[in-house]
Every structure is written in structure tokens, then in C-alpha cells.
Design goal:
It is globular and about 45 Å long. Helices cover 33% and strands 27% of the residues. It has a single domain, classed as 3-Layer(aba) Sandwich (Rossmann fold). Helix 2 runs parallel beside helix 6. The protein has seven helices and nine strands. The two termini are 30 Å apart. It has 234 residues and is an alpha/beta fold. Hypoxanthine binds next to strand 5, strand 8 and strand 9.
């Protein structure tokens, strides 16, 4: 047990999928894992462990934003021995070729400041995905008929952002989409020699103002879970 995860040692698999929303963790565990067992409900941040194609998998909510994800990822890695961590979540599209329901595989994650920023001081560390996971996820996504984009994303720490100029610079520099967690996940994975990837569904678009209705989010979310699982065990 840790401060934020009530699981026993051994309850958490080496491979962890991390949706922001704890109810998404429940939904994914019930729909994709065999014999999923609830292993954490501290603060309602649900986590389940079960199996997929014979492989042990944990699906643990991360909460929204890098400070929350940092707490769960630190404890999963340092206290429970997680080695492969894949964020599954939504993002806002930033480029015209990125459409609603498309999947973005985040090669890099730019940020203004993650919880790890203070240790880098004047350095601009470049948080990047694990290549083997990214490569496998590209293949898994391309075997489905889903629009897939691979490239840089922006991990913002402000959903209601008053700095429109930051999004403008991201768009200008080819960033595909915006979310709020991946940069810290990639940085922690680098620090602890783990593998990490963010697989994201485009749920809204900053350019067009479109947004996926709630009932269609679930279907897109299912594709993402499958891509993440296939990539983890490729
Ligand atoms: N901004 C930040 N995070 C997000 C967004 C967004 O527009 N959409 C989905 N996650």
C-alpha cells in the first residue's frame, strides 16, 4: 500500500494503462480484461488488474493534469514495479488534418512546466515516447481503419487557458494536439528506465470548435484500449 494506491504488493501488473478518468478505467477493465479485480479505490481513483491474451495488465486512473498523474505514476513505478505505462486519453486537435475520432500517437510531449521542471533548471528536457511501444502502436493503429497521426503533442497544465499565444505557437510548430499528462509520464519513464507512450483520441478540435458527443466517445475509447494493449505486448 502507498499513500494514494491501496493495492497490495503484487496486485499491480508490470504493464499499466492509465486513463485520466477513473470510470474509464472501470469501463476498460470490464470490457477488455479477463477476470478484472478492483485493486485500488483510494480517493475514488479506481484501478483494476486482470489479463488480456494471457498477459497481466493493470488499468489505473491517473486523474487530470500532470501533478495528479505524477503521484500515480511515481507510486506505480517505484513501489509497485510497473515497467510499461501507457496513457489512454483524449486530446484537443490542433492541426487541420487531425479530425475528431482520429488517434494521435505522441512521439514527443512539449510542456511549459511539468512537476519535474524544477530538477532540470535551465535545461529544456525533451520528453519522448518509448520507440518500441510507438512503433508497435503505429502498426496496431494502421491495421484498423482509424485516422492515425504520429508526432508531437502539447501537455498543457491549464484547460481554461488564458494564454492563447501558447496554443498559437504550438500550432505554428506542427504540434498535433493538446492534453494535460503525457510530458510528465514520459519524463518519469525516462528517469526510472521504463517504457511509456500516450495513445490519444481526438475528442475536440481547437480550430473548428467541434466536440465528440458523449455517446461516441466510448467507441473511440475502445479502439485506443486495443491499440495500447497490442502495443504493450507486441
Ligand atoms: N485541452 C487540454 N486537454 C484536453 C483538451 C483540450 O482542449 N481536450 C481534451 N483534453
Amino acid at each position: 500500500m502507498t499513500i494514494h494506491i491501496g493495492a497490495q504488493k503484487g496486485d499491480i501488473a508490470e504493464t499499466v494503462l492509465m486513463p485520466g478518468d477513473p470510470y474509464r478505467a472501470k469501463w476498460a477493465a470490464e470490457n477488455f480484461l479477463h477476470e478484472a479485480k478492483l485493486v485500488n479505490e483510494t480517493r475514488g481513483m479506481l484501478g483494476y488488474t486482470g489479463s488480456w491474451n494471457g498477459h497481466r495488465v493493470t488499468i489505473q486512473g491517473s486523474g487530470m493534469g500532470m501533478p495528479s498523474l505524477s503521484i500515480y505514476a511515481n507510486e506505480l513505478i517505484r513501489d509497485f514495479g510497473a515497467r510499461t505505462l501507457i496513457r489512454i486519453g483524449s486530446c484537443g486537435g490542433m492541426q487541420p488534418q487531425v479530425k475528431l475520432r482520429d488517434v494521435i500517437l505522441a512521439m514527443t510531449a512539449t510542456t511549459v512546466g511539468s512537476p519535474s521542471q524544477s530538477i532540470f533548471k535551465e535545461l529544456n528536457f525533451a520528453p519522448a515516447a518509448d520507440w518500441s511501444l510507438l512503433h508497435a502502436a503505429v502498426q496496431a493503429a494502421q491495421s484498423r481503419s482509424i485516422g492515425t497521426h504520429v508526432g508531437g503533442i502539447y501537455s498543457s497544465d491549464t484547460f481554461y487557458d488564458e494564454r492563447a499565444d501558447l496554443n498559437e505557437q504550438m500550432i505554428r510548430h506542427g504540434i498535433l494536439g493538446v492534453e494535460m499528462e503525457a510530458a510528465e509520464l514520459y519524463t518519469l519513464a525516462a528517469r526510472y528506465k521504463c517504457r511509456a507512450l500516450a495513445v490519444l483520441t481526438v475528442s475536440d478540435h481547437l480550430g473548428t470548435g467541434e466536440a465528440l458527443p458523449a455517446d461516441q466517445r466510448e467507441r473511440s475509447f475502445g479502439d485506443m484500449v486495443e491499440i495500447a494493449l497490442e502495443a504493450a505486448f507486441a
